[in-house]
Amino acid sequence: MAIAKAERLMNLALCLLGTRRPLSKRELRASIEAYIDAGSDDAFNRMFERDKDDLRELGLVIETVEGLEGDTGYLARRDSNRLPPVALDAEEAAALGLAAKVWQQARLAGAASGALQKLRAAGMPLAEDPYEIHSALEPRIPAHEAAFEPLMLACRDRRPVVFDYRKATAARPETRHVEPWTLECWRGHWYLAGWDRDRGAERVFRLSRITGRVRSRAAAFTADVPDHVTVRETVESWAGETATGTARIRLRADAGYPLRARALSTRAGDDGWDELEIPYGHGLDAWLVEFGPDVVVLEPAELRADVVDRLRAVAKG
Fold first, then answer.
1. What is the average per-residue pLDDT within 73-80?
2. Distance CA 108, CA 103 (A)
3. pTM value?
4. Could you tell me which of 144, 223, 212, 134 has the C-alpha nearest to residue 178?
């Protein structure tokens, strides 16, 4: 269905760009096969209005012209829809090159390399990469989860998805019906932010906990998609970046350096364990579990209980 719609939009765009005079709905319906096959005038009108809005959202400038006989015509003038030449300075080219390198180990590697080749063919300058000669470090965004690519496409196309998700405190996965908003990377882990239809609320899912295949659904979103800044703040909160209090933990000596870097205070012990006070926010229990037997939660009691529940779920397999 997605391919059929893309073909229909392409045909409509070609008709509007290829005409020198405004075309009426009647003429457009007779020129596009998908419109000819529409079951009724009402079905065609709804399809055409959606397609016209979609093309405008994609950036096509469509003019509406009133004819002498009262008919409404549509056209897309080529001069109004011609992109300006690509003009990037050396610093902008270097930034694009660095961004493309970030994705070389992810599934976007092909798209990133292809985009750079097209920009260079269009005249983008070949800027010297300051990181290539003087540094042994290169930026990377790993994306090894099988769910990454289908979810990335679903976010782009605004298509609801269904997948099985295993919470850290659950022994078995459960089916989730989600309207995906965006994918965000925090602390080396990918998260999906979206609207959980079953719970009627926004939720954040860690991709490494998605089991099985991600299935897409041909249906419209039922909830409004918030702006990107709001979604990033949501992921940040769920990933444990936003602290709402403090927690006290015992940490084995010479272990847990990421925890030590975030510690508000540290008291060294003489029994091979140190006591730390760290920021406490949503998702801290999942992070502490990653350190296994090197961490013991002292307080608050609810954090200790959450960590114990997660460890028991891991033990159950």
1. 87
2. 6
3. 0.51
4. 223
